[in-house]
Write a structure and sequence with these properties.
mainly alpha; 5 helices; 65% helix; 0% strand
């Protein structure tokens, strides 16, 4: 038997699945790109050691640093190779992500 309660439960379940899907999309772009930085720069960019922390730096600083590593104007041991794998949109997503940590 289909009643108002059943309809309300179905609607709320649908709304939750839609909101979870949009949340997953948000995570899969910036957060997933940022995961590759965690092994050196620490979780969420909070470095526990000698590698510089990148959390809380301005997005423009992080983006420009990645571009500088890409074009070779900023020396680094592995960052040039890492940065060369990102396009401009990905650089901006990473920069925005870490600037908010």
């Amino acid at each position: 038997m289909f009643n108002k309660l059943s309809a309300a439960l179905m609607l709320s379940g649908f709304c939750l699945s839609v909101s979870n899907a949009s949340f997953a999309l948000e995570i899969s772009q910036a957060s997933m790109l940022a995961n590759s930085c965690a092994s050196c720069h620490g979780t969420l960019g909070k470095s526990p050691g000698a590698i510089p922390a990148i959390n809380g730096k301005s997005a423009s600083f992080i983006a420009q640093s990645l571009r500088d590593f890409q074009n070779g104007s900023r020396p680094g041991t592995v960052m040039g190779r890492h940065a060369s794998g990102y396009n401009e949109q990905e650089i901006q997503l990473i920069a925005d992500f870490f600037s908010k940590q």
